[in-house]
Amino acid sequence: MSDSPSKLRNGLALAGFILVTFCAPALSIGVGMPGAWYAALNKPAWNPPSWLFGPAWTLLYTLMAVAAWLVWKRVGFSKPVALYFVQLALNAAWTPLFFGAHAMGWALVEIVALWIAILMTLLSFRRVNPTAGWLFVPYLAWVTFATCLNFTLWRLNPS
Question: How many domains does the chain have?
Fold first, then answer.
C-alpha cells in the first residue's frame, strides 16, 4: 500500500504535464488559426495537407508531455523542466505571430528560437533520462520541417 500515494502522485503529475502541454498551444485558438489568409498563400508542392497537422501535433504534444514527466520523475522541477516550459511558451507564441498577425518574417525568427530551445531541452532531457531525449527527436524533426516551410512561405509570399 505504501506505493499507492506515489503512484497517484505520478499519475496526477503525468496528467498535469499532458494538460499543460495541450493547453499552451490551445491558448492561441481564436487568436490565429489557418483560414482564408493561409488558404490564399502561394505554397510549395511539399506543403503538407491540412488534415495532417492535427494528428501530428497530437502525437508530438503527447510525446513531449511524457518526456517532461519522465524527467520530472527523476529531478523534479529543475533546469531541464524549466527549459521544457520555455520551449512550450515559444511553441505557443508561433501561431498568433504566423496565423494571427500574418507576420511570417517574425514567425520565422520566433520558430528559429523555438528550434534552439527544443534542441537545448532535448539535450538536457537526454542527460537526465535518455528515453526522454529520444521522445523529443520527432518534435525537433517536425519543427525543423516547419521552419523550412515557414521560410519558404515567407519567400513565396512577400508582403
Answer: 1
Q: Looking at residue 30, what is its pLDDT?
A: 61
CATH of the domain at 151: 1.20.1260.100
Mean pLDDT of 145-154: 98
What is the average per-residue pLDDT within 99-111?
95
DSSP string, the chain: -THHHHHHHHHHHHHHHHHHHHHHHHTTTTTS---HHHHTS---TTPPPGGGHHHHHHHHHHHHHHHHHHHHHHH-SSHHHHHHHHHHHHHHHHHIIIIIS--HHHHHHHHHHHHHHHHHHHHHHHHH-HHHHHHTHHHHHHHHHHHHHHHHHHHHS--
* pLDDT tens by residue, 65-95: 999 999 999 999 999 999 999 999 999 999 9
